[in-house]
Amino acid sequence: MPIPWPPAAVPNELGTATLSLGNAQYHTLQPRLEEAARAGFHQIDLFDECWAAYLEEHGLPGDQLWEATADNLRVARKLGDLVRSLGMRIACTQPLRKIEGIKDPAERRATLDLVAQRFPFMRAFDTDLVFMCASIRTDAGVTSDLKTVAKDLAELGDMAKAYSEADGGRMLRIGYEGLSWATRNTWASSWEAVRMANRPNVGLIVDAFNVLAVEFADPYNPAGHGRIYPTLQESIDVLCASLAGLVASVPGDRIFFFQVGDAERVDPKTFLPPTDPDVPVLLPWSRGHRLYPLEVERGGYMPVHLVAAAVLATGYQGPMSLEVFNNSLNTSGADVITTHARRGIEGLRKLAQVVQEVPAFWEMWQQGTREFRTIRTGRL
C-alpha cells in the first residue's frame, strides 16, 4: 500500500555507482571511494568495469573478474574492507547482461551459471544484491516470452537461495531492470516478469533515466524540446498515468534498488541518431549525456522528481543511488572525481527535498483526475 503523502522526511540513504565518479580507464577506484565518503555518500553500487580495473591494479587479470580463485576473493575482501573503513557499504554489484530468455538448453544453463559465479564475490564484498538489465538480444536464439523470462528469474532466485542456505549467510537477491533499449524496456514489463517469477528474493530495479527515456523523452525529436509529445502538459499526463500504476501495483519491498539520473536536452540538428544498426538509438545519449538530478543549469530537463516521488510512495526504503554516464567523466585529473562527487551529492539532496513538494498524483489518477496541472513546477 502507498505510504501517507507527503512524507515528513526522506530517510533513504544516498548512494552512487562507482562509474558515476569517474571512468575506470582514467581513475582508480580507491580515490573515487574516498571522495564519495567525504562527499557524504553511504552506499556504493559497484560496476563491473571498476571491479575489473581494481583486480588489475593488484596484478590480477581483469577479464577473469568472477573466477573464484583465492587471489581474486582475497582482493574482493580487501575492497569490501576498504569500503566499510570509509563508513560506506557496497549495496550491489552490476550489471548482468543478456541473461534471460535463451532458448538453447546448454547455452541457457551456462549463462545462468555465470550469474552464480558472482555469489562468492558478493559474500566477499559483503553485499546481497546483484542485478541484471533486461536482455537486448533480438536474434532467433532468445525470446522475451513472459513465461520463459519469469522461469529464468525464478531459477536464478532459487540458485541464490540455495547458495545462501548452504553457507548460512543472508539471503542473496536478484534484481531485474527494464533497460530503455531492451525488449522489456518499461518498469511495467519488468515488473510483470518479477511478479510472475514469484520469488521473494527476486525484485524490481527502477532506474529513473530508463523510465523517462521510454515514457517521457525523445532526444531526437526535431522540434528540439526533447520530449515524445509536443506539449509538456501531455508529456506529464502520460508519465504520471504510468507512475500511478507503479504506486498502485508494486509493493515497496519488491523494489530492490532505485537508480537516479537526469539527462541533457540535446540539439537534434547536431546530435543525430547512430547510423550503425547494431548500436541502440538511445545508447549515445545515455552513455554521454546523463546528468545528476535536477541539473537544469546544465541542460537537465527530465522530471526525475516525479519518478522518485512515485518510488518512495510505494514504501521503498532502499537507497537513492546515482547512475550517471557522461563524457565529462571520461577525462583524467583528480578534480574530475571531486567535482562529480560534489555535483552528485548536491543533486541527490536537492531531489530528497523536492520530492516532498510533489502532490500525490497517483491519488488524483485513481479519482479520475487525468490532467495533473499541479505537477508542473519551475523545475520542469
Structural class by helix and strand composition: alpha/beta
Provide the spatial order of strands within the biggest beta sheet: 1-2-3-4-5-6-7-10
Shape descriptor reads globular
Named at the architecture level, the CATH assignment is: Alpha-Beta Barrel
Beta strands, count: 10
Mean pLDDT: 95
Could you tell me the radius of gyration in angstroms?
20 Å
Assembly level: single chain
Biggest sheet: strands, sense, closure? 8 strands, parallel, barrel
Would you state the CATH class? Alpha Beta
Count of DSSP-assigned helices:
13
Summed up, the domain count is 1
Instruction: Tell me the strand percentage band.
Output: 5-15%
Helix content: 40-55%
- Low-pLDDT segments, ≥5 res: none
**At the third CATH level, what is the topology name?**
TIM Barrel
Instruction: Write the element-wise H/E pattern from the N-terminal end onward.
Output: EHEHHEHHEHEHEHHEEHEHEHH
> What's the end-to-end separation, in Å?
28 Å
Q: What name goes with the CATH superfamily?
A: Divalent-metal-dependent TIM barrel enzymes
Organism: Aspergillus nanangensis
InterPro entries: IolE/XylAMocC-like (IPR050312), Xyl_isomerase-like_sf (IPR036237), Xyl_isomerase-like_TIM-brl (IPR013022)
Protein name: Xylose isomerase-like TIM barrel domain-containing protein
Domain Xylose isomerase-like TIM barrel: 33-336
